[in-house]
Amino acid sequence: MEPIGELSGFALECPDPAALATFYSEVTGWPVIYTSPDWCSIETREDFHLSFQRSTDYVPPRWPDPHSSMQFHLHLRVDDLDRAQAAVIALGATAFPDQPRAQTARVMADPVGHVFCLVPRK
Questions:
Q1: May I ask the CATH class of domain 59-122?
Q2: Between the CA of residue 88 and those of 24, 56, 82, 91, 108, what are the distances in Å?
Q3: For residue 104, how many other CB atoms are within 10 A of its CB?
Q4: Which of 13, 26, 42, 118 is spaced 20 to 30 Å from 32 by Cα?
Q5: What's the confidence (pLDDT) of residue 65?
């Protein structure tokens, strides 16, 4: 089957695009390639971007919560779960108290509450 298109990136809503772009730039090593008051992007060498769009009424997802959802979450492959968790916490992330599979994944929240997981490299 011939694809119609290819995924080029994701955009996350947040109250401060520049701050969240800086957080994810530090976590991934991807450079910030675009900045405006309402939109910032980081990008890999493979032309895949993660962007951050201002939302003045932003409400973070709650997890775990049967009446809410995490809406989406990112997986970030890491060499060492403990070191990676400490590093992202130092950048402003938080670890959720409920870690259902702490040996194989760490469920975290970025500085504005988006859920992401640290998972070991294959």
A1: alpha beta
A2: 9, 25, 10, 5, 9
A3: 10
A4: 118
A5: 77
